[in-house]
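User: For a benchmark we're assembling, each entry needs the component sequences followed by a predicted structure for the full assembly. Here are entry 17's components. Please fill in the structure.
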Amino acid sequence: MTAGQAVLWVLALGALGLCLRRGPGTARKAVTDAGQSILKILPMFAVALPMAAFLAELIPADAASAWIGPESGTTGILVASFAGGLMPGGPFVTFPLVLAFAKAGAGVAQMVALVTGWSIFAIHRIVTWEYPLLGWRFVALRVLAAAPLPIIAGLLAELVLQVVPIGLGRP
Amino acid sequence: MIPFLRRHASLMAIAAIGAAAGATIWRRDGAGALAAALVHAWDLFLFILPSLLAGMLLAASVRQLVAPGMLARWMGAESGLFGLAVATAAGALTPGGPMAAFPLVLVLAAAGADRGALVAYILSWSLNGFQKLLVYEVSLLGLDFALMRTLLTLPMPVLAGWVARRLPIAWTPPR
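Assistant: Structure for entry 17:
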């Protein structure tokens, strides 16, 4: 178990302890709720993780370095911001794919732009949740207000990287 | 039928892309390469499983402890930057995926949050939601990267909410 996982477990058990103080019923509800969420997400994992592994295998080793490599600069940040919005699926797809891009030579600032672009634009999420629930006016409002943010995040990351060297991948 | 499709649209899209990619690997490199990729996927799953279990338990416990409408009275149209900051904090602390977060926007709107606060809320959840951050980003991309990206994007929902309040697009929550 890594340090991050240990922290997560401490937080989870702490929150469960607070539930328990409210009564055993609340704690039981939290545990069943967690179990149901896990059962719901397992089919996603069953298709998403193999997909990410296959795509990682298919991406040629130097494919990422030309478009979104560390030397691609502002153009690479623009490409990555846009590409992030097109990534299908939740974090179980995106983060393994980012890891695959990193192995194929993607730059760190470009990956900041990609993750930020995915967080903000994720088209599949707009189509399946935001538009049906909140309407196109809300989508327009949010997307217009946030459009420059992935690019700003990428450019800021480039400044940070000049001072602090930060790598990508498991420690 | 339509709700079923909506709920499973991304699952089916991912499965289709995965099947096509898997078939390509099989034809190019043979069944061995396909099996190796599947083993790699399984390893990744085992690696993320402890975080996943803890993250789900934490999310479910937080949902039991905090009522979502509680903070909305701080998020009205006159709430200024403070309201946007409250919305940003609430978004980052909201556990769960889109099936949990988007319906909460309607709850917050009904309880008095304005469009700027709602934009800040949903952006903060999608950029820096603690569950996604701890379960996936830290464990897969490393603490340094996750920390840098989070610190850089932390104030952004406030900025976007401020902009959204000034955009000439009127929005009323659907009933």
